[in-house]
User: Fold this.
Amino acid sequence: MEDQRTSQNDNDNRRLYNPYQDLQIPIQNIYKLPTSPEFLFQEESVAQRRSWGENLTYYTGIGYLSGAVAGAAKGLVDGVKASEPGDTVKLRINRILNASGHTGRKFGNRAGVIGLMYAGLESGIVAVRDTDDVVNSVVAGLGTGALYRAAAGVRSAAVAGAIGGVVVGAAVTAKQVLKRYVPI
Assistant:
């Protein structure tokens, strides 16, 4: 008990080091950082858009992550269905993990490639048209679907392109509705 009081008295007698004490600046003013984003050029502040590199990273990452999660869920269901009545618990868990990992990687890679192609096409279209509107996104969706399924034939590419355009159009519309009607 006496050792605890001695160590507590030692801590009370210590003076904390303040590296800013000689600057004669109130310490709370040092860490008041701006909350608004800073831009090098005024034109950057007007356009509220990610750069092509940020788009590439964002869409590829979101695509891979969502594909991997969806694939892992499908693999989980497939692994549970593939288990046989005589399997031990370890064998069932192994089947589930293998199926989830295999299907998750496969779906994640596919969705990541689709995100990569979409980001590249959308950034290219924005650069060529020099405008930022819904048409860029929908045309990029059309092109991504068509390009992704081009090796399967013209008909398959056309169908995939139409699906890509509709999906992107629905996503952009949903985003606009959320911005308008959901207070954030």
